[in-house]
Amino acid sequence: MPDAPDFDDLFALPELDAPAPRDRFPEKETFSRVAYQMVHDELLLDGVSRMNLATFCTTWVDDEARRLMNESMDKNIVDKDEYPQTAELERRCVRMLAHLWHAPDPGTTLGTSTTGSSEAAMLGGLAAKFRWRKRGGSGIPNFVCGPVQVCWEK
User: Fold this and answer.
1) Which tens digit of pLDDT belongs to each residue from 73-128?
2) What angle do CA 116, 120, 126 make, to 5 degrees?
3) Looking at residue 143, what DSSP letter applies?
4) Which end of the chain is more exposed for a tag (fewer CB within 10 A), N or C?
5) InterPro entries annotated for this entry (predicted)?
């Protein structure tokens, strides 16, 4: 659908008279500017990310990082054949993290990217389990952690 005509007041459009759909697609198409405004306005109800003290990672991102994310948003990082340079950057990051964490041979360390801290924590937990198993661990591994990651409840 083409974008909404250049109206003086976006909020005067009839599409913004009703709330955003909650459980099904709307019957008619929606102008992209209207859809953006609906989602944007709903997200205003969230807290201010820069004031988020309930996380252990920063919520501030510099402009260059935002630009790179915007430029790469349409890439499928799982498709290594179609995006070989993205895959190479991922391999570099794995090697750098392996070096940072004193892996025996950072150049041959295996790893992968994740989409969030829960996934990263679960991958780290699996790595610990595999190391435990390789050392001859028996029974159920004892994995002790505090209430930091929601993923452990999963």
Assistant:
1) 888 877 889 999 999 998 999 999 999 989 999 999 988 777 667 777 777 888 88
2) 145
3) -
4) C
5) Glutamate_decarboxylase, PyrdxlP-dep_de-COase, PyrdxlP-dep_Trfase, PyrdxlP-dep_Trfase_major
